[in-house]
FAD synthase (Tabrizicola soli), 248 residues
Amino acid sequence: MFLPVLPPHAPQPVMSIVTQGPLPRRLHHAVLCLGNFDGLHRGHGALVALAQALAGQQDLPLALMSCEPHPRSFFAPPGQAPFRLTTPVQKRLLFPAAGADYLFEPAFDAAFAALTPEDFLQGVLRGRLRVGTIVCGSDFRFGAGRRGDAETILRFAARHGLGARIVEKALPVSSTAVRAAINAGEIAEANRLLGRPWQIDLLADGLQLRPPPGHYLARRPEGGPPFGIALPAARARHGRFLDMLERL
């Protein structure tokens, strides 16, 4: 299992959050795993496991990249963005549990979206982050117009003496499939695809009191079977599905 699920009161591993500015020297030459990682589901397992192994063998930092907002949210028409499986709050819990020494979380805005594949690889990964090895899936696309792909990364790494590993998709699991299962109320299937219970961030409004830390059972407003596991969070809201919480 590449991603341990931490009990609610377990000490959280330490992970740096990198958005902008210089990268500390101790994080240079990292094994960087590229992807959106919405949900950090079982389909991401082989990708993260390989990056974990490479970082461990070479005693190098392990890093994951995940933009904010999600690129699909940025490009979607107003009100049509798919709901997130992993919010920024949850990433700060799940990613260090996967062994990441830092999360590269660039702001996905018009300027970032306009970067050419070469600008991203040379200016961001090599110039700013000084990565040592790049790991991505065979279907990974990046750069303006999604013109960059795995072959682009392999060629760039060969020219500049960097490591690069491409991982073929091993499981028929995707964030889209997880979202479809959740929308259909098939939470057991969503949990199977994720490899862990689906989690929801909660934020109390008005006179409501924020519940104490712990695991809660979320239900649909109209009642019915349990809908998923919710972890109370300081910031983030996901009111679309929730009406009642039951402490586990």
